[in-house]
Amino acid sequence: MTKSEAAPKRNLFQSDAMQRLLAFGALTLIFVGFSIASANFLKFDNVVGILIATAVNGVLALGVTFVIITGGIDLSIGTIMTLSAVMTGVFITFWGLPVPLGLAAGLLTGGLAGLTNGLLISRLKIPPFIATLGMLNIAKGLSLVISGLKPIYFNDTPVFNQMAMGSVLGSIFPGFDIPNAVLIMFGAAIVAHLILTKTIVGRYNFALGSNEEATRLSGVNTNLWKTAVYTLCGLFAGLAGVIMAARLNSAQPALGAGYELDAIAAAVIGGTSLSGGEGTMLGTIIGAFIISTLNNGLRIISVPQEWQSVVTGSILILAVYLDIIRRRQQ
Amino acid sequence: MRLKLDPRTKVADLTVAKQQMVEIAKAISFNSEVLIMDEPTAALTDTEIDELFRLIRELRGRGVGVVHISHRLEELKQISDRITVMRDGHYINTVSTQETSIDQIINMMVGRTIFETSPEVPADRSGKYVLEVKHLNRGNIIKDVSFNLRQGEILGFSGLVGAGRTEVARAIFGADPYDSGEIFVNGQKVDIKSPQDAVGHSIAYLSEDRKRYGLALGLDCENNIVLASFNKLLKFFGWVDSAKARTIADHFVKAMSIKTPSLQQLVKNLSGGNQQKLVIGKWLAKDTNILIFDEPTRGIDVGAKSEIYRLLNDLAQQGKSIIMISSELPEVLRMSHRVVVMCEGQITGELDYTEATQESIMKFATQRSGIVAVDN
To answer: Would B3 be classed as within a structural domain?
Structure first.
C-alpha cells in the first residue's frame, strides 16, 4: 500500500503570492504612515521624487534578482553601473558620437562586464562572491582611469538629459509630469518579469537555483545559462548607469560603489531568497519602493540622513526574519 | 609493526597501504581489546595484504579480538576463525571458517524470494549494438571495463555496493571524466565530455540519488518533467511554449499515474515512488534511445516497484535499450536479459538470463580477478 501522498500542504499564508502581498501591504502601511506624519508627503512633487529616486536602484535590483535566484550574488553591479555611465560619456561627449550610440555603448559595457563575471564563475569556477568582488574593484578602477578622474558632462547634448528627466507623459497629459526615467524603470520591470516567467532563461534560472547539478545531469549546458544570467544582470546595471548619467547630466566616476547593497536589499525585501530558487520581479520592485519611500519619508519628517541606513538595514533584517517565520510552518 | 617510516612524514604523502598501517598503529596504541576493520584490503597489493595478515595474526596472539569486514571470501577463509553473514541489514548466521565452504557462504548471502520470474525476453535477441564501451578506465575506480548493449535489451548491472557500477554509468553519461576508453553509439565512435553530449547521443541517466541528482525539489512537477526537453519548447526570442510544456507534463503524469494534486505541486511534496516516476517521466519526455537506470526501485514500496518493472519492460519492447544497475538480486534476475557483474572496478562476469542465478552473480560479485573462489 503506497504511503499516503499527504504532502505538508502549504497553506495560503505561506504561498509566494502571500509574500508579495505582505510586502505590498508593508509598502502601503509605510505610505499611509508617512502621509499622516507629514502633510508634505503626498504632494505630487514629493511622490515624483520617490519615483525618480527608485529608478536607478530599481533597475539595478531587477538585474541582480536574476543572479540571486540562481543562488549566486553580484557585488559589482554598482561599479559596473558607473563604468557604463562613463563609457556613455566617452562615446557622447569625448568622441561626439550620436546619443543612441552612446546609449548602446553604456548597455554593452554592462553586458560585457556581466559576461566576464559569468565566465569567471561558470568556467573558472570562481565563487560568485569573489569573482564579482574582483570585478567591483576592476570596474571602479577602470571608471577612474577612463574618465581621467573627473566627471564627464553632457552639456553639449541636452537631449540626453531630457531622455531621463523630460516627460513624455507630461506632454500627453498636462500636469502629469512624471519623468521618463520612471517609465523606463517600469518598462525594464515588465521586460525583466517577462524574461523571468516566459522565456527559457527564466526557466533555467530557477532550475539552476533550485538544483544546479540535477539540471546539469538533465543534459542542460549549465555553464552557458549561468553566464547568460550574469550577462543579463550586467545589462541591467548598464541601463541603470545610463539612466543615472542622464539624470545627473554627468557621469560621476566616484559614485557607484555601495549601490549594490541597496539593490540586493531591495531584492531580498521583495522576497528573493538568497539561497536561490525563488523570487519575483514584482516583489523586487516593491522592495525597491519600500527602501526609497522610507528614505524619503524619514527625510520629510526631518530624521537626519545618517539614520536612513540604519532604518534600511533594520527593515532588511526584519523582512527576512518575518519570511523565515512564515515559512517555518512547512 | 616493522614500519620503516619517519614519524614526521605527512600522512597524505604515504601510500594507501602505509596509511592503513598508520591507522592500525593508532588503534593498537589505544591498547584496544577489539579492533574492527572495514574492508582493510581493498586498496592493498598481495604483498601488503600478507603483511597486514601477519599483523592481524600477531594481534590475535596478543588476545585482541578482530572483526574483519570484507566481501573477499578467499581472504576471510585465510584469516578468520569464524564468519558472520549479514544480508539486507539482517543477521543470517555465524559459522566456523574451517567447516564452511565458500559456496556455502555465498548461499547464505543470497536469499530465496517470492517473485523470481523469468524476464520478458524478446524472441529475437539479435538486435544491433546500440552502445559499445571499450576499455574504459578511470584511476582505480574503473579498470578496463568493456561491454555492449543491444537494442531492445535490458542489461542488468550487478555487484556489491562500491563495485564501480555508478561510476561507469556516470562516465558513459559524461557526468564524470575518465582517463581512457572508447564509447560507440550505434556503431559510431562518440566523444562524450558532458551530460549535454550524452543526451545529444540519446543517452539518459537516472541517478540512484534522485533527490540530489534527479530532481529540482523546489520546482513544480511541470518544470521537472520538461527539464531535459526545453529545446523542444522554444518559440521566438527564447520564449517558452508554456501551453505545450503543460500538455507534455500532463501527458506523462497521466501516463505514469503520478499522484499529484496538480502540475504546480512542488516535487519535494511527492512520495518517493511518485518522485521516481517523475524522473522517469522527464527522460521519457526527452525520448532517448538508451536509458541507464541506477537503482530504479530504491526506497520505493512494492506497488510502485511493479509499476516500474512493467514500465521498463514496455520500454524494451518499444525498442529502447536499457542498462539497469541494481544491488537487489531478485530484481536483477527478474528483469535482465543479460547480466554483467562488477567487482572492485572490473567486470568479473557476464551471464545470459538462462545462466543467471543469485549464487552465480554473487560469486562474480565477490571475486577479485585472478583469484578463483576455492571450494574446500
So the answer is: no
CATH number at residue B196: 3.40.50.300
Q: Looking at residue A9, what is its pLDDT?
A: 45
B246 to chain A nearest CA, in Å? 13
Give contacts of B194 with chain A, Cβ < 8 Å.
216, 221
- Residue B2: pLDDT band (50, 70, 90) is confident
pLDDT digits (tens, 9 = 90+) for A274-284: 888 999 999 99
Number of structural domains found in chain B = 2
d(CA B102, CA A329): 55
CA B318, CA B151: separation in Å to the nearest integer?
10
* Residue B304 pLDDT level (bands cut at 50, 70, 90): confident
Cβ proximity of B151 and B128 under 8 Å? yes
ipTM comes to 0.85
CA distance A286 to A27: 7
The reply to whether B184 and B232 lie within a common domain is yes
Mutate to test the interface with A, among B227, B233, B275 (most CBs of A within 10 A): B227
Neighbours of B243 (CB within 10 A): 9
Cα–Cα distance list, A171 to A187, A188, B116 (Å): 19, 22, 83
Q: How far is CA A99 from CA A86, A92, A105, A238, A250, in A?
A: 14, 6, 10, 15, 14
Q: Which residue of B has its CA nearest to A201?
A: B238
Are B232 and B105 in a shared domain?
Answer: no
Answer whether B223 sits within 8 Å of A8, measured CB to CB: no
Does B143 have pLDDT greater than 80? yes
pLDDT in the model for residue B205: 97
The string of pLDDT tens digits covering residues A42-65 is 888 899 989 998 999 999 999 999
